[in-house]
Write a structure and sequence with these properties.
Blueprint: H1 8-46
Length: 52
């Protein structure tokens, strides 16, 4: 006999939230890979880059 945990809906909500955050992080990384060099160069020219 299989029994489901009592907090299965909460677990599913947590899983959906984790998947949403992973998708947003992937989208942010893709956007950075596309435009990151131009953003960094413009910040460096303005003297605002923290990495230099």
């Amino acid at each position: 006999m299989k029994t489901a945990p009592a907090n299965l809906p909460a677990f599913l909500k947590l899983g959906a939230l984790a998947m949403l955050l992973a998708a947003l992080a992937g989208l942010g990384l893709a956007m950075w890979m596309e435009n990151g060099a131009a953003i960094f160069i413009s910040l460096a020219e303005a003297g605002l880059a923290w990495c230099l």
